[in-house]
Structure formats: structure tokens, C-alpha cells
Amino acid sequence: MNMMRLLIFALLLANAAFAQQKNAVEIAGTWEGSSICTVPNSPCHDEHVIYHFTQDPKDSTKFTVAADKVVNGQEEYMGTLNCVFTASKSELFCDNPGDWRFTVTGKSMKGTLVINKQTLYRKVSVEKK
């Protein structure tokens, strides 16, 4: 009986690890959509964005995001974010500056940028290309 419990536990752990790795791998790639400002009269501008997600080869939960905005049909580099994926929440968290949080649902990703720990500054909606 104990051997059966141990086997079931091992299978559950392996399944959870596989699910996290599978979900994380689906994030890698190019995502495109909008980044909308939420603070009136701020220096923020609504943008058409393209995010290039690259998975860390040594840790499937870590990603680098090269963020571009589209201006006059051309991609302009804005910066890079370092993120961590939590499979149980289907969430990417990037702390750089401000708190970027993205929820991944299949080929759709919705996110926010919160600055100063309290101000919702941007809402992001992108789709995987």
C-alpha cells in the first residue's frame, strides 16, 4: 500500500512539473497587441506593441521579454523585462521598474503595469503570433 502511494505521489509530481514546463514553453515567441494608458494627463501614450519572449534554457520558469512599440509601421525597441512564470496562476511576473503581471490563457495574454505599488498605469492585451 505504501509503495502504491509513493508511486501515485511521484506521478503527480512529474505531471505538475511537466504541466509547468509545457505552459512555460508556450509563452516563448512573439506576442502582439495593445498597451493602453490608464492615468489621464500622464506622459503615457497608448501603443501598439510587439513582445518577444525568450525562455531561459536553464530554468523553464524564467523569461526575458524584449518589448517593442510600433511607430509608423516600424518596431522601436523600448526595453527588456525579466519575468518569472508561475504555472499554478498561469501568471508571468516582471519586476522592472514597476510590477508587470501577465495572465496567460492559451494564445492570449492580458497584463497590467502597476507603479509605486498602487497606481495602475497600463493595461496590456496581446495575442501570440
Task: Provide an overview of this structure.
With 129 residues, the chain is an alpha+beta fold. It has a single domain (2-128), classed as Lipocalin (Beta Barrel). It is 20% helix and 58% strand. It is built from one helix and eight strands; from the N terminus they run H-E-E-E-E-E-E-E-E. It has one helix spanning 2-27, and strands at 29-37, 47-56, 59-71, 74-86, 91-95, 99-105, 108-115, 119-128. Strands 1-2-3-4-5-6-7-8 form an eight-stranded antiparallel beta barrel. The longest helix is centred in the first third of the chain and has 26 residues, at 2-27. The radius of gyration is 18 Å and the shape is globular. It starts with a helix and ends with a strand. Residues 3-23 have low confidence and may be disordered.
